[in-house]
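Hi Y.,

Following your request, here is the sequence exactly as I used it, all 158 residues.
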Amino acid sequence: MRVLFVCLGNICRSPTAEGVFRAHLEQAGLASRVEVDSCGIGPWHVGKAPDARAREAAMQRGIDLSDLRARQLAVEDFERFDYVLAMDHDNLAAIEAQRPASSEAVVALFLGFAGWPERAVPDPYFGDEDGFEAVLDLVEAASRGLLADIASRLEDAP
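Below is the corresponding structure, written out as tokens. Let me know if you'd prefer a different format.
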């Protein structure tokens, strides 16, 4: 099973989601069965570490994002990943615009797994540190729902 988190530049929301979801998988004993990655719609930050504010907020919760590096969404991602999860509606539209017809990946808003199908994870980039804390709270809630969905799928797998 493979999960890809997608935001605009891959330095705030999607790497936070990647780190938080990895921690949930570790706690559930599923880390060896689920691959997790993140990327951005655009090329602005390719090769860069997550925003320092995102790293600091995550580290305060015991999640280390320092090894992550930004990359851009690629066509191959639609064949490689089972889930391609957007942080907001604009990201979702951009993903759908690039999605090949042959892709069988689940493409959806990440917060849909928290029971909030119409809500987006707000981009904290131009705000203060509180925005990064709010992102972590939303990502934690969605991660719990996604974990339950994936665990169910893995149990049903032959």
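The beta strands are 2-7, 35-40, 83-86, 106-109.

Thanks again,
Q.
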